[in-house]
Amino acid sequence: MAVDQLSVIQAEAELARLAGALAAANRAYHTEDAPEISDAAYDALKRRNAEIEKRFPDLKRADSPSEQVGSAVSDGFGKVRHAVRMLSLENAFDDKEVAEFDQRIRRFLGLSDDAPLGYTAEPKIDGLSLSLRYENGRLVQAATRGDGEVGENVTANALTIKDIPQTLTGAPAILEVRGEVYMSHADFAALNARQDASGGKTFANPRNAAAGSLRQLDAEITRARPLRFFAYAWGEVSEPLAPTQKGAIDRLANLGFQTNPLTQRFEDIEGLARHYRDIETRRASLGYDIDGVVYKVDDLRLQERLGFRSTTPRWAIAHKFPAELAWTVLEAIDIQVGRTGALSPVARLRPITVGGVVVSNATLHNEDYIAGRDSNGGPIREGRDIRVGDWVQVYRAGDVIPKIKDVDLARRPAEARPYAFPQTCPECGSVAMREPGDAVHRCIGGLICPAQAVEKLKHFVSRGAFDIEGLGAKQIEMFFADDLLPIREPADIFTLAARDRANLSKLANRDGFGERSAKKLFAAIEDRRKIPLAKLLFALGIRHLGETSSAMIATHYETWPAFEAAMTAARVGEGPEWDDLIGIDGVGSVMAASLVTTMQQEAERASIDWLVAQLDVQESRCVVAENSPVAGKTIVFTGTLKKMSRAEAKARAEALGAKVAGSVSAKTDLLVAGPGAGSKTKKAEELGIETINEDHWLSLIGGA
To answer: Catalytic residue at 405?
Structure first.
């Protein structure tokens, strides 16, 4: 199923599974050099995570894989802090996504579709990233990427690789050269043959062999391994290598580094596509592993303007080669109930390997997807429904629990029957309603539904929320079912210690607990009584409210009493409190209505008030940039900006400590209006809010 057909609860569940799966994969791949899944499968997980976060930005987790690079360094090596972070790359899987990448860059830079914009294209080597630091022409340090900020010191090992020069002539005084350590197919085969003959460990693929060889504690072992190195980037430099990406790569080649001969420059994305197809057809004959082609904006001045996201540069993307498909049998369809009551169907499959990973589950999303239709009633899979017993094609390019791509009607058993979606909740028996316009059935049981209550509590103690050590999902299930010390709502967590004392410290005598572990749990709970407002809002599990929006709302209202008073006074769709709420940048009417409705429901509000009475909720204040003329001000941009994109203007304002709102209100301090500005300008005039043009705005922030 496409991401835009996911319900919020399905998306949230998949993001949770993705975070765990990707964390484990990163440890296995980067730290242990023993990957448990294939590169294609890993890319699929990353892509699925990115797609869901893009569709549901409010659900982004604190431990989101999109905010992480690599994995923590091994204890066996010294640590090196990179002067310039070593980031990962955004991925594209088809020409459409490459075109979208080009359009995003043009929008950010304010370039028209026909404006010249050059790119470089180079094979994406499947190896281990390495940073080489040269000072006054001498190699002084080599480090792996690690988590992007701190890597492993492998200097002694890097000195044994023939492709890596130990001295340079004509290089900048400080030069960090970055590239990929890899092993050729022929050398890999020969190494495995030697390892097998001597009874040593054989490697699963050249990447594992290269990574394991570079990260040896004994440099002499590395010396005996046939490692190679391609240079393709740089970190800290005391002076620019060249004005362009291609020029800088050529400069590295002139300094004595091996650079990939297939690296070329193109004037348009059509040229990139042709080069991608050419490299793909030659892939098997290259003699080393690649898993895609990397595109980079060629002009380094534009790269600087585009800058970086948290883990990836805006000016580069990896166009990956396709993932795999597989056929297997659908043995059963199970229904899971989430914290918002959504009924999520899951396919139980006969285990099959897809992209290097054994798959036994697949998401089925909702009733329409199983029936072979989209949310508008149109056919998907040409109208073929999915039935228990069917042979189904499983597609893993982007799904943590893969999706079912197709059904083989020729192999459908005669006894297979259309699936009847349940009309009642399998957990509590309440009616499962499907509201008009919603693709999902939801249990109306609310607090009486044990599945919803348990899932809400699990969310409450999750990493991005209260994150109480010793109180995870398994413990929540145990306490929820407990009759003596139950936890049925969040406030119960903070009365647990008092109730335990009243019951003669019974917890210390339970399975899985002793006196010491019980005390540690109570201490961990006590430590979480003091909580930032943003984390409290996210922990409440209000539908449509994720971490990002929780942080924005917390920054806007600053204190719990101010937020609580505003939500109590607000009326959905009207009034100053409503206008103020939806004026927060990123808060729409659906999210706002969910907030107001939740805070005004009697049972929910009683539960929340009882919880807050147990807590010390901390204020949320904006980080104020030093020497900023707009720090702490609320700014609205409207109309067309000529000299920078709206995204660039917003990013610059927020970096200077300002709040950026989506609509004008009495709390607005400044309106920046370009050509075509309409109702916002008029409202600003009515409210007496200062309005300036883009030139004035640039002049105002020019020295900040």
So the answer is: no
